[in-house]
Amino acid sequence: MFDNFIYYLKIIILGLPDTLSLGLFGILSAGVLAVIFSCLLSLNSVVLSKVIRTYIIIFTGSPLLVQLFLIYYGPSQFNDALSNVPNFYNFISSPWFCAYLALTLNSAAYTTQIFYGALKSVPKGQWQACEALGMNKWQTLKIVLPYALKRALSTYSNEVVFVVKGTALASMIPVMDVMGYSNQLNGDYYDFSIFIVAGLIYLLINGLLSTIMRIIEKKALSFEN
């Protein structure tokens, strides 16, 4: 039993680079997009707000797996047109890139809600103080945004964990991540303990991430103590 565990671990861990890279780049890209979208929503532009809110409804209202399939299989419908651009089709249709794009767009929609909610929760007095100093909305955002993001860290840490767990769906298109190798092993041995090994790996990753996020949150909010 123990020998099997070690053997499965040696194989499954080969997918760790893809799992970590998808999680890391997905979290960073989604975070940047969410900050931009939250700022744009705060400007109260009717057109921009409708576009961003429509995007949020689409990506929070549909399953990540469906989004993954649409992004991966969608470009193949336009193969003739896209193939005229050298290497472009190969790039946008690569499993890793499609998984990264789906994770980024999905997480950015949820994270925008978190960050924008944090911005709206900033006391009106801070907005009014900046306005009284003659600051425009962009200048005001530079002042209140860091404070709002610090207040959002507690909720945002959950989204970080969800992104890493969401990488497990990448094996469906397929990406040879932790779940990709787990599925491959299961096809050869039909042993449920394979997924116990995979689950432990995800548990370790998310445990470390949660700890890191708590440390960041504690330091970011130290000014309140």
Short account of what is shown:
With 225 residues, this protein is mainly α.
Taking the alpha carbons of the first and last residues, their distance comes to 50 Å
- What summary fits the major beta sheet? none
Number of helices: 11
Which CATH class? Mainly Alpha
Number of strands: 0
The stretches of 5 or more residues where confidence is low (pLDDT under 50) are none
Determine the CATH topology.
Answer: MetI-like fold
SSE string: HHHHHHHHHHH
Give the DSSP E fraction (strand runs of 2 or more residues).
under 5%
Q: Domains counted in the coordinates: how many?
A: 1
Mean pLDDT: 88
**Shape, principal axes of CA atoms:** flat
Radius of gyration: 21 Å
CATH architecture: Orthogonal Bundle
Helix content: over 70%
Q: Structural class of the secondary elements?
A: mainly alpha
What do we call the CATH homologous superfamily? MetI-like
Describe the structure in your own words.
With 225 residues, this protein is mainly alpha-helical. The chain has a single domain, classed as MetI-like (MetI-like fold, Orthogonal Bundle). The chain has helices spanning 2-12, 16-42, 46-61, 64-73, 79-82, 88-92, 95-120, 124-132, 137-166, 178-189, 193-220. The longest helix has 30 residues, at 137-166.
